[in-house]
Design brief:
The complex is a heterodimer.
Chain A lengths: L3 E12 L2 E13 L4 E5 L6 H8 L7 E6 L2 E2 L5 H11 E4 L11 H6 L11 H14 L15 H13 L5 E5 L7 H18 L2 E6 L2 H4 L4 E6 L2 E7 L9
Parallel strand pairs in A: 3-8, 3-9, 6-7, 7-8
Antiparallel strand pairs in A: 1-2, 1-4, 4-5, 9-10
Helix pairs in contact in A: 4-5, 5-6
Chain B lengths: L2 H12 L1 H41 L2 E5 L5 E2 L2 E2 L14 H9 L4 E15 L10 E8 L1 H7 L3 E6 L9 E4 H11 L8 E8 L2 E15 L9 E5 H8 L13 H4 L7 H5 L17 H8 L3 H7 L8 E6 L5 H14 L4 E5 H5 L5 H34 L1 H9 L4 H37 L1 E2 L3 H7 L3 E2 L5 H27 L5 H4 L2
Helix pairs in contact in B: 1-15, 2-13, 2-15, 2-17, 13-17, 15-17
Classes of the chains: A alpha/beta, B alpha+beta.
Chain lengths: 237, 492
């Protein structure tokens, strides 16, 4: 069963007295463990699709299902709980909480839910993630003391800390130089293989697109092509 | 430390200028509140002590009228209403003696008189004074409030007057004559039955132990002298019971019907005959009733003042007394020291109301400034709020985050204001603030005010500042709660 399913999804934004049709009837499914790239030029609807999958925006028409659950009609409380439980977010601009240090930023989503894991277990898990993203020596640093690449690593660890089934990354390399961007994508891919977390990222960089094993190309708010490749498998943590 | 408090503290440090703007407003507001409340509380206590210890006791009992009655008389619109005589004085006094809460009881009459010297009997320069007619035997042990410059207290049963030093100076200035103990003065009083003049000997010249120029107009006289001045005779306290035939003329408004239509003067042939004393007495009838009507009513009092063993019992004892008075169908009422002190006792309340009104205006301004600053903060942190919402923060978490920041800033700077206010009061307490005029002496409850801060005042200040913070954060937090998670992506 697809972990994400979009069925004839449309999104219309009002723009003054006119309307912008950002997504015009998109239908596709994403399997669990996919490392999927939503590619396309600016204005093709990549971010809108990610927002709809991430339940931070609602479709004008059509249906979005996460792990078999329709997201339309859910209350703000329920949809927030769904995001917390199922989804992790990596933002283009990192969006770290500026007054919290690396450790605290990564820990932050764990403080939002009702489930409280034992402290020792929690610390071990955060420690593992910090090591995984290579920030062991930076745990006490605030975001403004880190480079762009380091910040995005923090964002990746933060996205993974609640052990979500899906991680959404909106142009995660847009604010990074190409080498750092490539390293971030490699890190995401590694985690995808190790933890079998579904990664959905948008990009307009064709080199990065090629790393994905499932590519959906958008053009003018519609799916122009969809490509599946053989997945690489690795032992999980 | 919980994450919300951690975020709150760090955000305050991160946005120093905004925190400082809000903080300084809060700290100054609390300082003003602490200092103002300390002034008013100390003054109120001073006024209370002045009256309670020196003039009123814990409870006053007086005859009822429609206008408010205080120890200084009736506050009627024209100012001419007589203070009512306490009905069934003996019965009330006897009941009070049987009450376990009562420590001591005294009685008093109050009236206004003008003072002149026998040689200036017709002078227009007579000096007005308020007279407290007292029974020294019970009054002095209850209110030991006088220091004598010369002479001494009234002896029980003796006639005489005690004048304040300031009143003596005014009499000497206005009448251009020296006044000393042993001198005779003329008192002119206006009672229910007209103008009364009494000669009285100056027995003592005093100053109040608790200096208060505003109360120096009070003089003390023996109660019989004051009863005479006020016309408190046996006749004045009786209610005439006239037959209908006797009052029938009162309804007439025609002079002819009142005085008859005949000649104004008629010649009686009997007037030409000599009349013996016996015959005259038989014509006039028994004049004993008239003589009785002119006799002073030695049982007439305006007030009974009561000191209780425990001052905290006053409200309960007043209620108990009023219930008993009602049960006995006595047209009298009991009240507290504030009622007894009249307008003077309410000065601190009036000042407090003005202060609260001023604080309210300052608070509204503070709320608006803090609210605007918080709105700017919310707008600047839209992305952060959106990110938190995207990561799974419920709206309640965002609300708690902002209320935590509001409370942290309110409490931190509120405490700073409390410390500053307490320091100011500590300095003023050591220095003492001199009352430079009579009004300030009443307000301060004495010649010098040494303000002190109470725990209650500090708690009030903290409560007010938290309330201001909570009110100020309501609109900004409503704006923050409207931030959609999608704004995390749209805004940086």
């Amino acid at each position: 069963m697809a972990i994400v399913r979009l069925t004839d999804v449309r999104k219309v934004y009002p723009l003054g007295k006119t309307e912008v049709h950002a997504v015009k009837g998109v239908t596709f499914g994403i399997e669990k463990g996919d490392f999927i790239s939503i590619a396309g030029p600016s204005g093709s609807g990549k971010t809108t699709i990610l927002n709809l999958i991430g339940c931070i925006d609602t479709p004008t028409a059509g249906a979005v299902e996460i792990d078999g659950q329709a997201t339309s009609g859910l209350s703000d409380r329920d949809i927030t709980s769904l995001r917390h439980k199922m989804l992790g977010f990596i933002f283009q601009s990192f969006n770290l909480v500026p007054v919290l240090n690396v450790f605290e930023n990564i820990e932050f989503p764990l403080l939002l839910g009702k489930d409280r894991a034992p402290r020792k277990e929690k610390l071990e898990w955060i420690g593992y993630l910090i090591e995984e993203v290579g920030l062991t020596n930076w745990t006490k640093h605030r975001p403004n003391e880190l480079s762009g690449g380091q910040r995005q690593r923090v964002a990746i660890a933060r996205a993974l800390v609640t052990k979500p089934q899906i991680v959404l990354a909106d142009e995660p390399t847009a604010n990074l130089d190409s080498a750092t961007g490539a390293a971030i994508i490699e890190l995401m891919k590694k985690i995808n293989r190790e933890m079998e977390t579904t990664f959905i990222f948008s990009t307009h960089d064709d080199k990065i697109v090629q790393i994905a094993d499932h590519i959906i190309r958008l053009h003018d708010g519609m799916v122009s092509s969809e490509e599946r490749r053989e997945r690489e498998h690795a032992s999980s943590h | 430390m919980p994450v919300l408090i951690r975020i709150a503290f760090r955000n305050l440090l991160e946005h120093k200028s905004k925190s400082l703007i809000i903080g300084v407003i809060i700290a100054l507001g609390v300082t003003i509140l602490v200092v103002g409340n300390a002034f008013i509380d100390t003054a109120a206590l001073g006024i209370k002590r002045t009256f309670l210890d020196n003039f009123t006791g814990n409870v006053i009992i007086n005859g009822k009228t429609d206008a408010p009655v205080s120890l200084f008389g009736v506050s009627s619109p024209g100012g001419m209403e007589q203070t009512p005589t306490l009905p069934s004085y003996d019965k009330i006094a006897a009941w009070l003696k049987g009450q376990p809460e009562v420590k001591s009881v005294t009685s008093q009459i109050t009236g206004m008189a003008t003072v002149s010297t026998p040689s200036d009997e017709n002078s227009d320069d007579a000096v007005p004074t308020m007279l407290f007619g007292i029974d020294p035997a019970t009054y002095r042990p209850m209110f030991d409030n006088l220091n004598f410059v010369s002479g001494g207290y009234l002896a029980p049963g003796a006639e005489g007057i005690l004048l304040s030093q300031q009143r003596v100076k005014e009499i000497e200035k206005d009448l251009k004559t020296k006044v000393a103990v042993g001198d005779t003065l003329l008192l002119n009083g206006f009672g229910g039955s007209g103008l009364h003049i009494r000669r009285v000997t100056v027995r003592g010249i005093f100053t109040f132990k608790q200096k208060n120029d505003a109360l120096e107009f009070i003089s003390y006289a023996d109660v019989q002298t004051l009863r005479g001045l006020l016309g408190m005779t046996l006749g004045s306290t009786k209610i005439a019971d006239l037959a209908k035939s006797d009052t029938s003329l009162l309804g007439e408004d025609s002079a002819d019907s009142l005085f008859g239509g005949g000649d104004m003067v008629s010649v009686d042939s009997s007037a030409a005959k000599p009349v013996s004393s016996r015959e005259l007495t038989s014509i006039l009838g028994d004049t004993g009733g008239n003589r009785k009507a002119e006799q002073l009513d030695t049982g007439a009092w305006h007030f009974i003042l009561v000191d209780l063993t425990n001052a905290n019992d006053a409200p309960r004892f007043i209620a108990k007394t009023n219930a008993w008075l009602a049960e006995q169908h006595l047209n009298a009422e009991a009240g507290d020291w504030k009622k007894a002190a009249g307008g003077l006792g309410s000065i601190s309340d009036i000042v407090r109301i003005i202060f609260i009104a001023a604080i309210l205006i300052v608070a509204i301004v503070a709320v608006i400034i803090i609210m605007n600053t918080l709105i700017v903060s919310v707008i600047e942190r839209t992305s952060e709020i959106g990110t938190m919402r995207a990561l799974g923060a419920q709206k309640s978490f965002i609300w708690r985050m902002f209320i935590s920041e509001t409370l942290v800033i309110s409490i931190v700077f509120g405490l700073a204001g409390m410390i500053l206010g307490s320091a100011v009061i500590a300095v003023l307490n050591v220095m003492g603030i001199q009352a430079t005029n009579s009004f300030l002496q009443i307000l301060f409850g004495g010649a010098v005010l040494r303000p002190t801060v109470s725990a209650g005042s500090l708690a009030t200040a903290l409560g007010v500042v938290i309330l201001i913070g909570v009110l100020a954060h309501l609109y900004p937090v409503a704006v923050a709660l409207k931030v959609e998670p999608v704004r995390a992506i749209q805004t940086e």
